[in-house]
Amino acid sequence: MTRRISTIVLTLALLLAVGWGLWERANRLTLANAVEAGGQRDFYNLLNYVEQAQVSMGKSLASSSPRQQAVHLTEAWNQAAAAQLSLSQLPTPGIKPINTSKFLAQTSDYNNYLAQKLARGGELSSQEREQLARLRDEMKRLAVDLRQTEGQVASKGLRWSSFYSTRMPAPLRTIANLAIPVQAQPGPLDGFVNADRRLQTLPSLNYDGPFSDHLEKPRPLGLKGGDVSQAEAERRATAFANDASNSNYRVQATRTSNGLLPTFALNLVDNRRPSVIVHIDISKQGGEVISLLNTRPVGAPTLDAAKALERATAFLKAHGFASMQPTYTVRTDNNQVITFAAKEGDVILYPDQVKVKVALDNGEITGWDATPYYMAHHRRQLPTPKLTPAEARAKINPGLKVEGVRLALIPLPGGIEKLTYEVKTKLDDTRYLTYINAVTGEEEKVLQIVDVPGGQLTM
After folding, report:
1. Range 389-458 classified under CATH 3.10.450
2. From CA 334, how far away is CA 152, in angstroms rounded?
3. Whole-structure pTM value
4. Which of 4, 224, 356, 389 has minimal Cβ neighbours within 10 Å of its Cβ?
């Protein structure tokens, strides 16, 4: 009897194992087919967009009409951006086509920059045409490399999903290499590798766009003086955190961070509330407080937005930020986040921003971000406006109701700044901010004001 039961149990276990194996195999096949379909789609999208972009750039070079040039440059802008997106989704394990991605991003952005210049009535300079022709030629070579990859994948019957195959453990790989000497054979993705290496040697592309080479390493303009010691950074960090929380902190750990803005990154522990940890960054140059984050849970609000604004304004003034204007605010997790911008005379300096987060349960400063301020703040020679506020109003679409006009310095792509009139308008129930260049009268930017719970945002 016992033997019969054991036989039945073993048989059931075997059937379950076989069934699980078949189910697992079916799942793997489904996943492999999905990856294969996605890989083929992304590769042919990449190839198609690259070929289209080089054709569109060629048409813009061949055209003598600024309007047609702008049309073709806009097409090339979108096609290069779509090619970059397809490349980012393509399965290329072991290969990081960083230079190819950067090339596509720069090509897209450069075409956008030229199209906008033409739309404003400008003309392409001889240097811009030479740069555009160089990008067109490189795009053509990239298309050839992609066609080569396509041919290799097809001739070897490779599947994109195979690039995700499990890698053999190192000891087994060594034994296999000893048993079967490796023959030098071209890999199926050699086209990608060759293209990426060649694009690495491209000359710098300098223009007024966000992907311009001269903007890759911006430097902080708002930091002055020499480097501070770690001990001095820790002293400044604890003093700032003590003031933010009206408490007493000690340093738990300190490390260094070498990004665009090198800092001492500290963790502080509240001696009165041991579970409360504050993360704070102090710039090495000048010892300024760049950011602070207190992650404690915030209880039910006892303060409203107006009281939070009073607390944030007083904290700013106490730390040397006397001339700051609150711009926008939003409530998140019982915290009120208020964005301040520096003010010079009657001009709002939007590049020089500081964000302050106030806990609505007790008024504690739980967040601080002065990175934009220290990256952008410096003594500027602002131009004298050639337009009056009334003339700026006259530039607005007559279908909009104007609610206010003031001078504002705004940041634009490419790290440039423009002095504008910020014209607050309303269309039906929606509010907008239109920025009219105070010198040329051109419309530089339009933002929509979006009401959210506890504040407003601009988009």
Report:
1. yes
2. 58
3. 0.67
4. 4
